[in-house]
Design a protein that fits this description.
The chain is an alpha+beta fold and 219 residues long. The chain has four helices and twelve strands.
């Protein structure tokens, strides 16, 4: 089974809302690529399976063309149409919080295996701590250059308070757990936050021996 099918294990398909792709030129790429956005609305398809298939097909095609492929992690308003980039004002509810762990310092090229191992070690420390605080089990994703932990929660209406709470939550984790090699990204608190589409290759700078491009995948 293609890894992109596992995307839906982490990012569940809503019944009555659109989903979206953002295709972005990787940092350091010399290809002439302009950002592209694709929105898939249930009303445009005969079934949700058809909508999923269109999303998967376009994500893989654009990824093969050299783009990095992203999608919003939260629920888009049901009346959103068109192919503009999703903004915070287009998000109505949060369904998960992302703890994104990556190396600190220079991130202009792919991570090494040792740096990725360090990210997963930190992720396990954070998971133990948060589960001790009553958090549910997260979904784990190898982001291609680090570790993503997605902690689910019931649909939570978007508000300034929710945004500020998640921002402070991530800053608190960073203060407690960051080290000289890897750390928590404290910038991923906005409602329209995008994340790698699972099953696509994450490109960053120029790959080299010991620093290859890798696929984002469920672990």
């Amino acid at each position: 089974m293609s890894e992109i099918k596992n995307h839906w294990l982490v990012h569940q398909l809503p019944n009555d809302r659109p989903i979206s792709i953002r295709a972005i030129k990787p940092k350091g790429s010399d290809l002439s690529l302009f950002p592209q956005n694709r929105t898939y609305h249930p009303s445009d398809y005969d079934s949700l399976d058809d909508m999923k298939a269109a999303f998967e097909r376009d994500a893989l095609r654009l990824n093969e063309g050299g783009y990095n492929i992203y999608t919003p992690i939260n629920l888009i308003r049901s009346d959103f149409y068109g192919n503009a980039a999703i903004q915070d004002s287009d998000i109505t509810h949060r369904t998960k919080v992302l703890v994104d762990i990556d190396r600190v310092g220079d991130t202009s090229c792919p991570a090494s295996d040792a740096e990725i191992d360090a990210a997963f070690d930190l992720g396990r420390d954070i998971e133990r701590f948060l589960k001790g605080e009553g958090f549910p089990d997260p979904r784990w994703v190898h982001s291609g250059n680090g570790c993503h932990l997605y902690f689910p929660f019931p649909e939570l209406p978007e508000s300034l308070l929710v945004k500020q709470t998640i921002e402070q939550f991530l800053k608190g984790l960073a203060l407690k757990f960051n080290n000289s090699i890897v750390g928590v990204d404290t910038s991923v608190f906005n409602a329209s936050r995008i994340t790698k589409v699972i099953g696509t290759i994450a490109r960053k700078g120029i790959e080299s021996e010991g620093r290859p491009y890798r696929m984002a995948r469920v672990v």
